[in-house]
């Protein structure tokens, strides 16, 4: 639909909205009960009472379903760093916001690590775009404020790299690294270019 030259998003049909809720509820229950490994499109469709084709048309594949499960928590996180209270939100100096953001992103990633791991490894570049671009733009802006003249674009990638789900899962589960140690390491990186 076009209004005043602007295209407005299509509204979701009521039956499609109900199916979406049923599908995501069923998928979340399966993940809670059986873990991400138990999340199959056929089982989710059966549990939701919809056809498998509906699931594939709506979400594409398991990684699309994982991103949909991640979406609500992601929206909350983005609202917190864009407009929430300081230090994560506006109202403090850039270095304090960067630190708060990195710590919150570490916690957010650990919270849904298995879903993020599945989503980020679905394709070679699956991690990038969407939320990553938002994180990158936010960090780039804050880095430019904290250290004018620095290559904020590349530094943002350097700060986000340790929080890739595959690396974080490997470090936390395979090497005994804790989330607190990851945060301390990020603080060390941050200190290197904000002091």
TrEMBL record:
Pfam families: TetR_N (PF00440)
Alphabetical UniProt keywords: DNA-binding
HTH tetR-type domain sequence ranges: 17-77
Superkingdom, taxonomy of origin: Bacteria
PROSITE patterns, per database record: HTH_TETR_2
InterPro entries: Homeodomain-like_sf, HTH-type_TetR-like_transc_reg, HTH_TetR
PANTHER family per the UniProt record, alphabetical: HTH-TYPE TRANSCRIPTIONAL REGULATOR RUTR, POSSIBLE TRANSCRIPTIONAL REGULATORY PROTEIN (PROBABLY TETR-FAMILY)
Protein name: Transcriptional regulator, TetR family
Source species: Streptosporangium roseum (strain ATCC 12428 / DSM 43021 / JCM 3005 / KCTC 9067 / NCIMB 10171 / NRRL 2505 / NI 9100)
């Amino acid at each position: 639909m076009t209004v005043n030259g602007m295209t407005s998003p299509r509204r979701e049909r009521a039956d499609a909205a109900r199916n979406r809720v049923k599908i995501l509820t069923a998928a979340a229950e399966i993940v809670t009960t059986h873990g991400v490994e138990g999340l199959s499109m056929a089982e989710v469709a059966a549990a939701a009472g919809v056809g498998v084709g509906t699931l594939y048309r709506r979400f594409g594949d398991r990684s699309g379903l994982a991103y949909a499960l991640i979406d609500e928590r992601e929206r909350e996180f983005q609202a917190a760093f864009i407009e929430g209270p300081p230090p994560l939100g506006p109202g403090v100096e850039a270095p304090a916001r960067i630190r708060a953001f990195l710590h919150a992103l570490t916690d957010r990633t650990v919270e849904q690590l298995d879903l993020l791991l599945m989503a980020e490894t679905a394709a070679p570049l699956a991690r990038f775009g969407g939320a990553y671009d938002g994180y990158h733009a936010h960090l780039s802006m804050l880095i430019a404020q904290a250290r004018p003249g620095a290559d904020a674009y590349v530094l943002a990638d350097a700060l986000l790299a340790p929080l890739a789900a595959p690396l974080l899962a490997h470090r936390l589960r395979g090497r005994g690294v804790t989330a607190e140690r990851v945060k301390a390491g990020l603080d060390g990186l941050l200190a290197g270019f904000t002091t």
